[in-house]
Design a protein that fits this description.
28% of the residues lie in helices and 26% in strands. With 320 residues, it is an alpha/beta fold. The protein folds into 2 domains: 174 residues, Medium-chain alcohol dehydrogenases, catalytic domain (Quinone Oxidoreductase, Chain A, domain 1, Alpha-Beta Complex), CATH 3.90.180; 118 residues, NAD(P)-binding Rossmann-like Domain (Rossmann fold). Strands 3, 5, 6, 7, 8, 15 and 16 form a 7-stranded mixed β-sheet that branches. Helix 2 packs across helix 3 and helix 2 packs across helix 7. The longest helix has 22 residues. The mean pLDDT is 96. The protein binds NADP nicotinamide-adenine-dinucleotide phosphate. The site of NADP nicotinamide-adenine-dinucleotide phosphate (NAP) has 27 residues, from helix 1, helix 2 and helix 3. Pfam families: ADH_N, ADH_zinc_N_2. Keywords: NADP, Oxidoreductase. This is Zinc-binding dehydrogenase.
Length: 320
Amino acid sequence: MKALFFKTFGDANVLQYGTLPDPQIGPEDLLVQTHYIGLNFADIYRRRGTYHLEPHTPFIDGYEGLGQIVAIGSDVTTFTLGERVLFVDVPFANASLVRVPRDHAIRVPSAIDDKTAASIGLQGLTADFLAHDLARNHVGDRVLIHGISGGVGQLLAQMLIADGVQVAGVTSTLAKREIALKLGTSRVFLRHSDWAEHERGHFDTVFDGVGVTLPLSFDLVGHRGSVVFYGMAGGLPPKIDAVNLLNQSKSLLTGDLWDYLTSFEARQTRSTRLFRYVLNGAIKVQPPTILPLADGRKAHELLESGKSTGKILLESGSFS
Ligand SMILES: NC(=O)c1ccc[n+]([C@@H]2O[C@H](COP(=O)([O-])OP(=O)(O)OC[C@H]3O[C@@H](n4cnc5c(N)ncnc54)[C@H](OP(=O)(O)O)[C@@H]3O)[C@@H](O)[C@H]2O)c1
């Protein structure tokens, strides 16, 4: 198979593209020929050596992709050869062939095309668990999303708006601000302006996937408000004083999607809920940026630069 791999941790230059042995499947596995592979911020953390990475020689990054089943384990009766499946929590995805345990395979409704499905898998299920498992906002709540024009940010904003929540956001450039406003967001602040002073205590919930912004996020929520901390795209957050939170009745909610995708049913129920937003037009997916898997380095650099908006997909080139 063809794969994007690395032997040491470091910047995007450690990435190499070449031929590696095909994965072997067990009785409960599917072999999936990937079409599109999703790039995520966690792939950057893994390449840098700062995040959990499945042992493999050489290392292969990536956990989500969409493709076609080309081989089926002897105990699998629920999938057929040629079926299209999505997966979001399967290691070694930066390759033309991926071993997908059957419980991790997600069926996609035929009305959703490949690019759209591949663009919303992991980020969409993340938005879903942040909104529906962690924050659990009510109609009319006021929320703010840092990095609202990013992949998770855009999907989360549209999901919450469809749920009747008032969504504001923060972003870095005027162009990204335009994108966020088109989603139906009420107000979008520019990160480098002095917007925050007027907004302290204003929100019921702040969604923070940026990390360094965590103290600001706690200032922005009112008493009894909560901050949903889910990532560090901007760097590690400083330590938070729990006694301070207690004194103001503010809560820190946090979690990893993988602790919510624990069975075939959990993946199916959550993806069905996510796909419904797409099928009924509540979530509109911005066209992804697509680069060949062979150009993985460029794709990592683009994501790290902060200049991309929406999803970056790697095309494995194994499809004719
Ligand atoms: N907990 C989980 O299970 C889980 C699952 C998936 C993803 N995540 C996390 O979710 C976050 C967003 O992921 P994504 O895939 O949506 O990435 P993304 O598309 O690259 O979006 C990240 C956003 O963060 C903002 N940002 C980057 N550097 C920043 C900085 N220094 N200061 C402030 N903002 C900065 C950028 O927005 P602006 O340029 O507009 O400010 C960017 O749009 C990441 O932290 C990721 O690790 C968590």
